[in-house]
Amino acid sequence: MELFSLSIGELAGLYSRREISPVEVTKAYLDRIGSLDGSIGAYLAVAPEAAMEQARAAEKRLAEGRGRPLTGVPLALKDVLCTKDMPTTCGSRILENFKPPFDACVVRRLREEGAVFLGKTNMDEFAMGSSNENSGFFPVRNPWNTGYIPGGSSGGSAAATAARLCAGALGTDTGGSIRQPASHCGIVGLKPTYGRVSRFGLVAYASSLDQIGPLTRNVTDAAIMMNALAGHDPADSTSAPRPVPDYTACLKADGLQGLKVGLPKEYFVEGLDPEVEKAVRTAVDTLRSLGAEIIEVSLPHTEYGVAAYYIVAPAEASSNLARFDGVRYGYRSAEGRDLAGMYLNSRSEGFGPEVIRRIMIGTYVLSAGYYDAYYRKATQVRALIRRDFEQALVKCDVLACPVSPIPAFKIGEMTGDPLTMYLTDVFTLCINMAGIPGLSVPCGLTSQGLPVGLQLLGGFFQEDILLRTAFNYEQASPFSFGKILPGI
Fold first, then answer.
1. pLDDT score for 488
2. In whole angstroms, what is the distance from residue 212 CA to residue 84 CA?
3. Which among 21, 204, 312, 335 is least buried, having the fewest CB atoms inside 10 angstroms?
4. Annotated catalytic sites, by residue?
């Protein structure tokens, strides 16, 4: 039995029966990382000594009967989440040697569960990107074909999960950065409702859009992780003080009778790759065969989503990234004859080109004379986008659509065309603007052997409905993880 092939749910069961131990599972993952990650680049930092120490502590905890579902489970953390015992670089040279003095709330909650942290995963710099080619260190490669991108910005977490370099991982989603790499890597990715999971200790890109969520091999594992992650955090003013259901309790393969699934007509338009459309429509047919009623709905302001998002997100990034000035922490340039020169050189040398581009856009739209014309108008469009989803979700329980208009593309294919790259997020970013939950589940393979994801969207705080729908689909689908794997 290959220990690194076991899901989180399977590990928990075997641990409880004392058939395997966290120490041997952790060692199997570390060995696999050592042999494979050189060709994938999923990790920026691996912590073998700390991981083995955590595994031994988990073993003791299990022996004492204090095990939890994630006790002893080897996980990976996106390198935008603060960890007091590992560097947090955000994929940027400007934070290359930064080690926070505290843990993010989600990291603390996983420690309390007894999880094992294998390391920090690679990402687009400060989560700004859709391909993981914007990392300040090296790109991540798709385990299904290492000549292709894994998606971004959580590409390292997605690639590590798909390549079985961890049992599951945490990512962050600002405009699709969990769901899009999950789709491209053939795994499950869940972006919770804004406020469902604490953002404390997440280095912010766009504070009103960022959300932390799990990337896993199957829907059951996503539910297990959500049980640990979700809940109110008084340290986060945006955290919702709402009770957390048991997400695993909704995972019943009893069909989808009575469920209404809406197909947004604006998400099946010209420009959608034919193979992606075929896979998604086939998945919708599977939902229908499980008893769901399929209806067409409209999200009329979708066409303005990309433009509005790329005003709101850079504006917030311009403000959030102002703290990286070379004075308090992070990289400081040796050049510059005065304070202003030190600021300029530290930021110019420390940030990559995509981060600089978005800071410049954000600063421009917030500047005097342009705020009303751009930023205020974008926030008004955002309100209309949210209203579209609210009205559509009155008519149906979930929405089903593609995650991305195209499958994973070759590394370097779009790096010279930022606008086209931005358009690859057209089906994901409106969900962040609205604040609703979204989930990607594998639904097919292209003729090139690359995965395609089905995106399911739900009402506010209705992650349980999304998980139930995805679980039933997964049981009926030939494309769920474990049935088809990367050929590595």
1. 66
2. 18
3. 335
4. 78, 153, 177
